[in-house]
Design a protein that fits this description.
CATH class: Alpha Beta
Oligomer: single chain
Shape: globular
Helix content: 40-55%
Radius of gyration: 16 Å
Distance between the termini: 28 Å
Low-confidence stretches: 165-171, 173-181
Number of helices: 7
Number of domains: 1
Strand order of the largest sheet: 1-6-5-2-4-3
Order of helices and strands: HHEHEHEHEHEHE
Strand content: 15-25%
CATH architecture: 3-Layer(aba) Sandwich
Largest sheet: 6 strands, mixed
Structural class: alpha/beta
């Protein structure tokens, strides 16, 4: 069974409302039409924003997007979430439940760089990390020294409204960018 089919089945069990699940599926497919094809060539990147009210199904959409990404050939999905331990654990548990066929890696897995890099190179993976400066630094260090050329990655910020940089500070004209929700890149 494809990862997307597994996630849709899980959403149907969890939500029960056919129309809501259909909206999630439609939104996820719309997002996937906008990202960089993972099996294409060259260095390309795209960014996008999925937004909605609290409890509107955003996490379901992003989970379905990650499943579509794995089915389409993305080797890695990195999910950024809250530094709140309870919310982090909830997101990690959701990833484990939603992706039984993928390697699910946690912020603790970043401690062993060699093992982490070996795992993301050898199989499709989902890494769930908190938006904590030390954790993000460790992720960047691992990826920087990891010789990951050719790794396709989908980045998902599941809590773009939390712990995001104030983009007005870094822009001379005082304008800001929308908070990142998904980014796809072929390295």
């Amino acid at each position: 069974m494809k990862h997307f089919d597994q996630v849709v089945s899980l959403l149907r069990q969890q939500i029960g409302n056919h129309n809501e699940v259909s909206d999630i599926i439609s939104s996820a497919r719309e997002v996937s039409q906008k990202w960089v094809p993972p099996l294409g060539s060259g260095d390309r990147e795209t960014n996008g924003l999925v937004y909605g009210l609290v409890q509107s199904g955003k996490t379901g959409v992003l989970t379905a997007c990650a499943a579509l990404a794995a089915d389409e050939g993305y080797k890695s999905t990195i999910i950024f979430t809250s530094d709140n331990d309870a919310l982090y654990d909830q997101t990690l548990d959701r990833a484990r439940e939603a992706f039984p066929g993928l390697e699910i890696l946690s912020k603790a897995d970043l401690r062993d760089s060699a093992s982490y890099l070996s795992r993301i190179r050898s199989m499709n993976s989902v890494t769930v990390v908190t938006k904590n400066g030390n954790i993000l630094d460790k992720l960047i260090q691992n990826l920087s020294k990891g010789n990951i050329k050719g790794l396709t990655a989908l980045l998902i910020d599941d809590e773009a409204d939390q712990a995001s940089p104030n983009t007005k500070e870094s822009r001379e004209d005082g304008t800001s960018d929308l908070p990142l929700k998904f980014s796809s890149k072929r390295i």
